[in-house]
Specification:
The chain has a single domain, classed as Up-down Bundle (Growth Hormone, Chain: A), CATH 1.20.1250.20. It has 490 residues and is mainly α. It is 71% helix and 1% strand. The protein is globular. The protein has a two-stranded antiparallel ribbon with strand order 1-2. It is found in: Membrane. Keywords: Membrane, Transmembrane, Transmembrane helix, Transport. Its main location: membrane.
């Protein structure tokens, strides 16, 4: 077979994305149909996907752990809300304060640091002695996960070919749904074998060793060449691009990046830039719909076991005996696992359609579908028996499918695409932080409002939030499908 050759154009200075997007050419002039991913590109993808997996694992596992925590610490409704919101508040702070540091210190540095922070607080959580320390450790763990929101997106999107960006970023994000399902199953397995109030500690401890393996793997990936160029460090960018694109046979044989590549060395990087000029539109699109979908996604996700237990006539919140609490918790976990399967189906559909249909149409459709699912679930409050159960399951399953097809997936994808390179980490981090305000509000207020307003009124409020998300997406739409990151936000 003929060796691959470097085209004459490669002798000229080009951008990082030019090299990443170029399909190899055989010696007879035949161009390869698609750009083959290198081993390093796949390694980066897997390590980024692992971060989303751990987020889904620990955040959604909290839904199974909460009844046991409440029993051990004797929590009232207010304390229940604080504990539920702790990790989400940490995500908010981490995305806002640490996410932007990837623009200053580099994608790789934060990619490694965030996982180390996660491991430390995860280990502390497993041995937490009191309610106060449990809240603190959940918050610290959330800070690490918040940093991962923009950083994981950037290390993938800045290292892969443009035509595959949507489906690869979303497929990595889909591991959040895998983590949610595994987290629920881990909780169920632990409860099946350890009927003690402290069983929740083992649930979190189970993630420590896998997280350590991921942190170790992240030490051996190259820095984002696009970020290095944006900082004016072109020679380093060429070296790291060569590590990223190393193939056998070699292609490209040499990388010569343009010394006059469009970079933003002298441009401002403070938070106010996000609210100026055309960037404001990107900030609204990236942040507001994400906020609105998090109101519903985290409320439904974390409290699915609680709502199911109530719908099935096994309200664990009223149980006093440990045996009853564990039995109710296991029953709810079974139902939650079935519903969470639709998260996987939804993200799989999003992966298949994002680069074909486009981000904006899927986000609007998803919001409308979420509203429909929540409305179906609300109808269950008018019925009893099997009809009630059927409507709850049907509504939540439709919601989980549509949220991962649309807003839960597309908001994450868009937030890492609509900002220029020099503020991409800060922009994506701000959007994730603003979104988590909605998640924190939901996690804190949900158990209180569930008692004060009831399930029906609460679901109606979430229906309205989903419809508003569709409207905002349409009004501030910026379609990024098929566009190179180099050309977005200029």
């Amino acid at each position: 077979m003929n060796e691959m050759r470097t085209t004459p154009a490669e002798e000229l200075g080009r951008s990082v994305q030019d090299y990443i997007d170029e399909a190899p050419v055989w010696r007879d002039g035949t161009r390869v149909a698609s750009v083959p991913m290198t081993g390093m590109q796949w390694r980066i993808w897997w390590l980024a996907a692992a971060g989303k997996f751990f987020e889904g694992l620990v955040v959604f596992m909290t839904g199974v752990a909460l009844p046991l925590m409440a029993k051990e610490f004797g929590m009232d409704a207010f304390q229940h809300g604080i504990l539920s919101a702790a990790s989400l508040a940490g995500i908010l702070v981490g995305a806002l304060l640490l996410g932007g540091l990837a623009d200053r210190f580099g994608r790789k540095f934060m990619f490694v640091l965030e996982m180390m922070i996660f491991i430390v607080f995860l280990a502390l959580l497993a041995v937490s002695p009191t309610y106060g320390w449990t809240v603190t450790f959940l918050f610290g763990m959330g800070v690490a996960l918040g940093c991962d929101y923009p950083t994981a997106h950037l290390v993938i999107s800045e290292s892969i070919p443009t035509p595959a960006r949507g489906r690869l970023v979303l497929s990595a994000f889909g591991f959040q749904a895998v983590g949610a399902l595994i987290g629920t199953l881990v909780g169920y397995v632990v409860l099946s074998n350890l009927s003690e109030v402290s069983a929740w500690r083992l649930m979190y401890a189970a993630a420590i060793l896998p997280a350590a393996a991921v942190a170790l793997g992240r030490l051996f990936v190259p820095e984002s060449a696009s970020w290095l160029v944006a900082r004016g460090r072109v020679a380093e960018a060429e070296h790291h691009a060569e590590l990223l694109l190393r193939r056998s046979p070699a292609y490209p044989k040499a990388i010569h990046l343009a010394r006059r590549h469009r970079h933003h060395q002298g441009q401002q990087r403070h938070l106010a830039v996000l609210f100026q000029g055309p960037t404001l539109r990107a900030t609204i699109l990236a942040g507001v719909p994400w906020f609105l979908q998090d109101l519903a996604t985290y409320g439904i996700g974390i409290f699915t076991p609680t709502i199911l237990a109530a719908a099935l006539g096994h309200a664990a919140v009223h149980a006093q005996d440990l045996t009853d609490i564990v039995a109710d918790d296991m029953l709810a976990a079974e139902g939650a696992a079935l519903i969470d399967l639709l998260l996987l189906v939804g993200i799989g559909t999003a992966v298949a359609l994002a680069d074909r249909v486009g981000r904006i149409p899927l986000q609007i459709l998803g919001f409308l579908g979420c509203a429909a699912g929540l409305l179906v679930a609300s109808l269950s409050t008018f019925y009893d028996g099997q009809t009630r159960i059927l409507l709850v399951f049907a509504g939540f399953m439709l919601f989980n499918f549509m949220t991962n097809l649309g807003p839960n997936a597309q908001t994450y994808l868009l937030a890492g695409e609509v900002f220029p390179t020099h503020i991409r980490g800060m922009g994506a981090g701000f959007a994730a932080a603003f979104a988590k305000i909605g998640a924190v509000m939901t996690a804190f207020l949900f158990p209180i409002l569930l008692v004060d307003l009831g399930t029906r009124a609460l679901l109606y409020l979430l229906v309205g939030a989903s419809l508003l998300g569709a409207v905002v997406t349409y009004l501030f739409r910026i379609e990024t499908t098929g566009k190179r990151l180099d050309d977005i936000g200029l």
